[in-house]
């Protein structure tokens, strides 16, 4: 999603209905070495719908009422992306960038204000180059996390990268918003481990870290996908993992003390040593009956050491020898992706994520939630709604990295991230599920972070606020939602956008900018 705060740009009228050929000719001009007709789809193209729907994961936005792109571009190389940017600029068209299509609100491939736009689909930009000697990797934005994990493992079994667990999520979206996963407590977010990047700006220029400057490099690592340009590829710092890691996955019913265990978990998980990742979830049924709790863990070491540690720090959980499994790190990535003991090559399959109706949103918890409140939370799961809560503990190195290191600010005293997720199969069930998840989040108001109530930008939720209709908004309007995702870093992000705009358009008489940091126009070009 392009977060278009502080910006009003007029270049030329939008693409007319009969300008497809003109756009195609423009692409041919800027990319003379390509057969550009193979990467351009209009709404009249035979394969338009198939390309559009190929990576839409949320069926809510496959409806006829969704505002769709007037053109889809599927570039296969850098030159074609540059040509796409130049031609969209020449025709006065905004661009939305999609890498994997997992965004909850579908903002990479739909418009919420009925404006015309072009979708740039990076699914063909998926190369990965591993340098195991220097423990680095270059990853294009259309590559999946699963492919990254697999490629690393083929080079070195004791190297990894801290990112999420869904194998079909792509690098472009995840890295640009943060990236939380099983190694976060040990090594930080995905975005904390970005060493360099190649970004294409609105003039079609390719910039690396040195060329873009530290201000822009700071902003693209967690400031939200598509906000500052099109990130072509990322240079990653790979991290060390042992030859053998340990995992467990256990369920606890209400009769087995699920509520008390969740209550205790929020105290101990934050304080655990960084080698221990312990996630806690609430699900609607355990053994097909009542709601219950699920605990799953990754420990960077052997089962004997993990069990000894848990016996001291969380004996109530009752994890035993039979619960613990030892495996390689890559096999743990398969395990956490939900594929059990499958061959790691399964991580290369981009089509395994089920397409389903969904709604997701998030919170952060600063102070432990009281026991009585957990009883009320569990009551929300005594319905016919298919919903869950996923809680990822912070602490470890996350408590040591300054909030201003990158735009992602949820560090320090943050105990854990909360993800609420509702899933359903029929369009007719939409309103019931939306009402449920919105009611659940509302009931959590006084139990989670405040001033602002924080949220994770990779779980973007338009219920929390959005820009005014159109491209123009003020800083004061945008901060209503911006500070929820970025806290005090939002102002720096806004200023980074201002400096980027001034750099790009300085001396360009055909562009007009209205920039506001206090609700009024402060600069006009």
Automatic annotation (TrEMBL):
<dbReference type="GO" id="GO:0071949">
    <property type="term" value="F:FAD binding"/>
</dbReference>
<keyword id="KW-0274">FAD</keyword>
<dbReference type="InterPro" id="IPR012951">
    <property type="entry name" value="BBE"/>
</dbReference>
<dbReference type="InterPro" id="IPR016167">
    <property type="entry name" value="FAD-bd_PCMH_sub1"/>
</dbReference>
<protein>
    <submittedName>
        <fullName>FAD-binding Berberine family protein</fullName>
    </submittedName>
</protein>
<keyword id="KW-0732">Signal</keyword>
<dbReference type="InterPro" id="IPR006094">
    <property type="entry name" value="Oxid_FAD_bind_N"/>
</dbReference>
<dbReference type="Pfam" id="PF01565">
    <property type="entry name" value="FAD_binding_4"/>
</dbReference>
<dbReference type="InterPro" id="IPR036318">
    <property type="entry name" value="FAD-bd_PCMH-like_sf"/>
</dbReference>
<keyword id="KW-0285">Flavoprotein</keyword>
<dbReference type="GO" id="GO:0016491">
    <property type="term" value="F:oxidoreductase activity"/>
</dbReference>
<dbReference type="InterPro" id="IPR016169">
    <property type="entry name" value="FAD-bd_PCMH_sub2"/>
</dbReference>
<feature type="domain" description="FAD-binding PCMH-type">
    <location>
        <begin position="65"/>
        <end position="241"/>
    </location>
</feature>
<keyword id="KW-0325">Glycoprotein</keyword>
<feature type="signal peptide">
    <location>
        <begin position="1"/>
        <end position="16"/>
    </location>
</feature>
<comment type="similarity">
    <text>Belongs to the oxygen-dependent FAD-linked oxidoreductase family.</text>
</comment>
<dbReference type="Pfam" id="PF08031">
    <property type="entry name" value="BBE"/>
</dbReference>
<dbReference type="InterPro" id="IPR016166">
    <property type="entry name" value="FAD-bd_PCMH"/>
</dbReference>
């Amino acid at each position: 999603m392009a977060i278009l705060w502080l910006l009003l740009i007029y270049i030329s009228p939008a693409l007319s209905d009969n300008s497809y050929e003109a756009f195609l000719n423009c692409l041919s001009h800027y990319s003379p070495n390509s057969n550009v007709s193979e990467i351009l789809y209009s709404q009249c193209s035979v394969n338009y719908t198939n390309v559009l729907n190929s990576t839409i994961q949320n069926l809510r936005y496959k409806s006829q009422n969704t505002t769709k792109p007037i053109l889809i571009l599927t570039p296969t190389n850098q030159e074609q992306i540059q040509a796409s940017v130049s031609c969209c600029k020449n025709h006065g068209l905004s661009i939305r960038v999609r890498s994997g299509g997992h965004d909850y609100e579908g903002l990479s491939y739909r418009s919420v204000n009925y404006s015309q736009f072009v979708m740039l689909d990076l699914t063909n930009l998926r190369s990965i180059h591993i340098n195991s000697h220097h423990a680095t990797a270059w990853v294009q934005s259309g590559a999946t996390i699963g492919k990254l994990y697999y490629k690393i493992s083929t080079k070195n079994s004791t190297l990894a990268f801290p990112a999420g667990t869904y194998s079909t999520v792509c690098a472009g979206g995840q890295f640009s918003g943060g990236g939380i996963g099983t190694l976060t407590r040990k090594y930080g977010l995905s975005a904390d481990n970005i060493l360099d990047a190649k970004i294409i700006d609105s003039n079609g220029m390719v910039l690396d870290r040195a060329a873009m400057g530290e201000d822009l490099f700071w902003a693209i690592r967690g400031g939200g996908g598509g906000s500052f340009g099109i990130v072509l590829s990322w240079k990653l710092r790979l991290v060390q993992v042992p030859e053998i890691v340990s995992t467990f996955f256990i369920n606890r019913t209400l009769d087995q003390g699920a509520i008390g265990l969740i209550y205790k978990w929020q105290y101990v998980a934050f304080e655990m040593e960084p080698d221990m990742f312990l996630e806690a979830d609430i699900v609607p049924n355990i053994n097909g009956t009542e709601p219950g709790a699920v605990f799953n863990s990754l420990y960077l070491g052997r089962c004997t050491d993990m069990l000894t540690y848990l016996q001291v720090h969380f004996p109530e959980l009752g994890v035993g020898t039979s619960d613990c499994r030892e495996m390689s790190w890559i096999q743990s990535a398969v395990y956490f992706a939900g594929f059990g003991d499958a061959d790691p090559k399964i991580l290369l399959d981009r089509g395994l994520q089920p397409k389903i109706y969904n709604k997701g949103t998030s919170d952060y918890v600063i102070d432990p939630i009281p026991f009585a409140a957990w009883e009320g939370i569990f009551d929300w799961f005594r319905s016919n709604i298919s919903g869950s809560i996923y809680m990822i503990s912070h602490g470890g190195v996350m408590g040591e990295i300054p909030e201003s290191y990158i735009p992602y600010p949820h560090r320090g005293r943050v105990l854990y991230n909360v993800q609420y997720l509702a899933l359903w199969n029929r369009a007719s069930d939409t309103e019931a599920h939306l009402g449920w998840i919105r009611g659940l989040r509302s009931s959590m108001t006084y139990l989670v972070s405040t001033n602002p109530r924080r949220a994770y930008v990779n779980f973007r939720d338009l219920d929390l606020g959005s820009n005014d209709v159109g491209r123009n908004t003020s800083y004061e309007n945008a901060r209503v939602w911006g500070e929820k995702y970025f806290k005090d870093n939002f102002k720096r992000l806004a200023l980074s956008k201002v400096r980027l705009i001034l750099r790009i358009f300085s001396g360009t008489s055909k562009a007009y900018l209205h920039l506001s940091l206090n609700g009024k126009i402060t600069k006009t070009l």
